[in-house]
Amino acid sequence: MSDPTNPPSPPAQPPTPPQPYGAAPTPPPAAPAAAPAPYGSAPYGAAPQAYAPPAASVGQKSFIATWLFAWLLGFWGVDRFYLGKVGTGIAKLLTLGGLGVWVLVDLILVLTGAQRDIRGQRLEGYDQHKKVAWIVTGAVIALGLVINIISGATAGARLASDAADAPTAVVAEADAAADAETAEAEAPAEPVETAQTWADEAFGTFAPVTQTGAGDTLITLPATAGIVTATHDGSANFAISVLDSANGSTGELPVNTIGAYSGTTAYGFTSYSDPATLQVTADGNWSITISPVSSAPMLASSGTGDAVFLYDGGAAGLTATHSGSANFVIIEETADAFSMGLLVNEIGAYSGTVPLSAGPSAISVQADGSWTLAVG
User: Fold this and answer.
1) Model pTM?
2) Which end of the chain is more exposed for a tag (fewer CB within 10 A), N or C?
3) Strand, helix or coil at 172?
4) Do residues 277 and 347 make contact, with C-beta atoms less than 8 angstroms apart?
């Protein structure tokens, strides 16, 4: 029975048989091959092997496109949006490329091949096109520096030239100013507009026309606006109405009275259509003279009956009185669509103040009695 504490010894190797005298010695048996060392380990005393990480795979994002986006559109983060990095793309957009710093950093990363897409993959075509990209980028940067240097030198030369020419320019400006003053002094003075010249421009001018007769008649008007000076010695109705080219009323009735008449009225100031004819209604002898508005006298302070005047003063108040018993009408015509127009329209005695527009203007007074006008 075997003793468990003393295991049996391995069987002894059979003795090497004796070799014949003079024979070569038999080599000892070869040692069994050692088991391969596990990964990452090395036999004692041997140098450890270096670990080589696997190279990054190449993705589908183009190096050329990324390079151009980073260079030309980097301030808006287009390069990072293109690579799928939406978060940093938005940050780059909102900061305008980190005020330029981020743009430069991303451009360098792309040119050195360190930029990756959102999956960590290398940019497609980097090895084939990196040299061209470096050359083009460097050339453009160098060209920009040269242009800036030339521009600076040109600006400096221009400033120096301007500084040298400054005295000459001052003298030339002084000469030009003197010439302008001389020309202004020698130029003929422009004619000053008067109420008469204004009336001719606003209403036209023509030679006065005078007609006499008795009873009803029609008189062709020489212009669409003018003044009418008339007399009548009859005892019935004496009226002068204005007709257009179709013999329709223009809405104006310069004279409408009974019996004898003497006065001056205007037509064409408030007409609805262009005046062409005067229709005269009378039972006695009459005399009518049609004259341009510019022939009217300047505004009078008092008078009796109908009258037409010119006014060339400023805007003011017009204080008027009337002692008659029929219509008392004052019209101011400035040839302006927005003028005051009808100032007074009363029957009988009147006393009051109304606003008067600035001249030049024409003022028509219709009255059957004495009146006064005061501007102030």
Assistant:
1) 0.51
2) N
3) helix
4) no
